[in-house]
Protein: CbiX/SirB N-terminal domain-containing protein
Amino acid sequence: MKQGLILFAHGARDPRWAQPFERVAARVQDLQPDLTVSLAYLEFLAPDLVAAGQALAQAGCREVAVLPLFLGAGGHVRKDLPAKVEALQQAHPDVRWVLRPAAGESPQLVEALAQIAVATMAPTDEQDDQEHA
Structure:
């Protein structure tokens, strides 16, 4: 069964905002070459969830996971997104649509962010130079 993954992000007016998400999608594709990966955005950027879902359904995916790339599960993740996934299910009943928890709820992401925070407190060469001056 052909599988797809939609990485769902908020979106922003500045298209440069999407670059980290594009790198995540590319890395996922590298790690899972048989998986069809798409980015989708809530607003400002294309494609939106419906367009991304339609493209995966047309590409022959029969199971599509939707992973919200949000740190927390606020209104968009708890209310807006389930309604959009349900609309995709109605439009493409031959596809199994699976909404996953927000990435920010993952223990691995919490750990990674904690490690990044700790690393920011490590002295830099510039700080060492100032302390020894």
User: Anything to note?
Assistant: The longest strand covers residues 3-9. The domain at 3-105 is CATH 3.40.50.1400 (Rossmann fold). The radius of gyration is 18 Å.
